[in-house]
Specification:
It holds the Pfam family KduI. The longest helix has 4 residues. The strands form three sheets. Strands 2, 3, 4, 5, 6, 7, 8, 9 and 10 form a nine-stranded antiparallel beta sheet that branches. A seven-stranded antiparallel beta sheet has the order 1-17-14-19-13-12-11, with no helix packed on it. Strands 16-15-18 form a three-stranded antiparallel beta sheet, with no helix packed on it. The chain starts with a strand and ends in an 8-residue tail after the last strand. It contains one helix and 19 strands. The relative contact order is 0.20. It is about 0% helix and about 45% strand. It has one domain: Sandwich (Jelly Rolls). With about 260 residues, it is mainly β.
Length: about 260
Amino acid sequence: MSDLLRPHGSLADGDDPVRLTPESAGWTYTGLRVLRLQPGVERVVRTGGYEAFVLPLSGGCTVSVDGETFTLEGRESVFTKVTDFAYVPRDAEVALRAPAEQSEPTEVALPMARCERRLEPRYGPAEDVPVEVRGAGNATRQVNNFGVPGVWDHADKLNACELLTPDGNWSSYPPHKHDEATECEVVNEEIYYFRIAGRDGRKPSREGFGMHRTYTHDGAINASVTVRDGDVFLIPRGYHGPCLPAPGYPMTTRNGWPGPGGKL
């Protein structure tokens, strides 16, 4: 299903790399925005019926909402370190500003979830983010669990994490799924936002590539796709994995998976 792969640039909104709403995804709950903040210029985001994380991908910024201001130190790139972040509630006006002295724009991801409760804004320190190494051998990968249940419970429906896969390794393996609302599974709409580093292993680049697979038992979804930096893949249901970056090109994905069942 080629409509599940949204290539780099296809979701752009002006200078912003990604604007994906539940409506444009063809589902109900989950969205993603990636904003490019010019140094010293304030951007205002209205959350409407969605709660969101503000997660720096490169650079830092301030987040002002409901009379509070959080200063996010951020990071050089998604491949260099774990970042701090902010949670912002639904029905809020959020002002974002990159430091005026910064030489490059800041990029921030806003994984979003349609929700019911309105919670207060909150800051998430980088040092409180659990870093988990999963798998072994060529299936080793790192998970930054900044916004998952049991770690970050200050959210109504929103779940999110970062996954870093060394070049040549496999992640999301064995394949797994969240759908079929049983005692152990819930319905979730999942977004994979891919960033792939160049040969320096630090700065995202379109020169590298990786592979991703999603499928269902009945064959309604049977996708094995090539992904490059900035691509988005939508997972409405079914098994997903593996994700594997080509040798020489590390991969990260920002994964968000809200749904009607709430937290997984």
